Amino acid sequence: MHYVSTRGRARHLGFEGVTLAGLASDGGLYVPGHWPRFGEDEIAGMAGLPYAELAARVMRPFVEGSLTADELRDLCGRAYGRFSHDAVTPLVQLDQRQWLLELFHGPTLAFKDVALQLLGQLFEHFVAKSDDHLTIVGATSGDTGSAAIDAVAGRERIDIVMLHPKGRVSDVQRRQMTTVRAPNVHNVAIDGSFDDAQAIVKRMFVDRGMNSRFHISAVNSINWARLMAQIVYYFAAALQLGAPNRRVAFSVPTGNFGDVFAGYVAAQMGLPIERLIVATNVNDILHRALSSGDYSASDVTPTASPSMDIQVSSNFERLLFDAGGRDGLALADQMHGFDAVRAMQLTEEQRRAAAALFLSARADADDMGRAMAWAHECCGEVIDPHTAIGLHAARQADLDDGVPVVTLATAHPAKFPDAVERATGLRPPLPARVGDLFERSEAFAELPGTYEAVRDFVAERATPSS
Ligand SMILES: Cc1ncc(COP(=O)(O)O)c(C=O)c1O
Ligand SMILES: N[C@@H](CCOP(=O)(O)O)C(=O)O
Fold first, then answer.
1. Of 104, 111, 180, 440, which has the fewest beta carbons less than 10 angstroms from its beta carbon?
2. Whole-angstrom Cα distance, residue 288 to residue 285?
């Protein structure tokens, strides 16, 4: 499998190359040169496989040329061995139509673990083959940070510098990052929003001096391997609900458009997905883009679903590339136009292609609270604020009777106890596996939200590559 950049100018790479590179050198994102497709019989043959086996089966076409089938199976076995539920991503029924796909049974209690536990294994595997040293630079609105740190803490030949927006993540989320004491982990709180942090990270990839000195790598969903691992749970859920003989819809709490783009890829691979519902909070640029073509960013509004407080969604570029006929040079112009004024219109071609699969909805604080209360009162399920936004959208969606709707439950409710308590009266306890989080001491640097400040911090703390 070879990978191409959404901006058309970067060198094509294989799977190992894109995993280690993160962002492409032209500022674009890597996508597979074509979508591999499974036939109905092949999909039917996946039913009932243990999760790690299913993962190896679904991801196999994407890693060809870089990993053998045995190597991939071995890495999946290790990655999914640390989940606290045997099914890894169990499916829970709410009512006749509504289902929850629980993605929070990994070590840091959010869906990010599903991909980052594998990415940690992939980094280790590829780095062991060379004398290289990697410096991971990431941005988090709360969940990617702890999942990535858990996946690479203590690993030799990898440093991780993780930026979070100061004061805009929950206490549990912050502590899950800042109480990890390992010499290769460097946490930074920056003044600004997640968007500011993500822009700094992207700039570092195209800073040739920094990238060649430190071999910068990505754990955010700009890294293709992140999305690839997230495709698997769409297969796992749809198979349980009757695929390939039954169509299934998914509602996805969305911020950086990574999770829902993984669903788009699953559909391209032949999984019968009826609709993908993009659920946003009041930071609703994606809802506006999909419903009216208007992709214009404003300032980020802090909400009780902080991990989705994002305006500029990295992976939307991947959709625009594919939906717009894969013309990288035209997309580069479109994205440069967006960068200049923080606004653009989708082309007619992009809108039409997106509308064939995507629906969208926006939930405000009341919608979110009502969805949490409904799940609790009607079904005895305590859900987190991000999941609630997905569930609100799932319950509003206009779909044919008989199509089940699976909401991705992206985080454990105990990560957001205040919001959950306000809506349900219950304060969910932290699972034992995160232990004495509130007794441990924290360590993090505080920096202004400027590229120069972060660049100098990385240069001071990270180990240069060989
Ligand atoms: C709990 C939670 N839900 C939803 C999202 C949104 O996912 P994505 O950024 O892939 O759209 C995030 C952040 O990524 C998250 O941490
Ligand atoms: N919501 C994320 C933001 C980063 O998104 P990513 O999927 O690109 O890593 C977070 O919790 O950090």
1. 440
2. 5
Q: Is residue 49 part of a domain?
A: no
Long-range contacts of 126-130 (CB under 8 A, 24+ apart): 126/16, 126/19, 126/20, 127/157, 127/158, 130/466
Please name the residue whose Cα sits nearest to atom 9 of ligand 2: 220
* Rounded distance between C-alpha atoms, residue 460 and residue 237, angstroms: 45
Are the CB atoms for 162 and 186 separated by under 8 Å?
A: yes
**Domain assignment of residue 415, given as a range:** 91-107+224-424
- Rg of the chain (C-alpha set): 20
Answer yes or no: is the C-beta of 220 below 6 A from any ligand 2 atom.
yes
Geometric angle at alpha carbon 113, from 264 and 27, rounded to 5°? 55
Give the integer Cα–Cα distance in Å for 462 and 200: 16
Across 276-283, average pLDDT: 97
Q: For residue range 86-118, list pLDDT tens digits in order.
A: 999 999 999 999 999 999 999 999 999 999 999
CB 313 within 8 A of CB 255: yes
Q: Relative to the alpha carbon of 223, which ligand is closest?
A: 2
Domain tally, the chain:
1
The reply to whether 239 falls in a domain is yes
Cα distance between residue 215 and residue 199, in whole Å: 18
Residue 97: other Cβ atoms inside 10 A:
16
Active site residues: 112
Residue 164 token pair: 């979070």
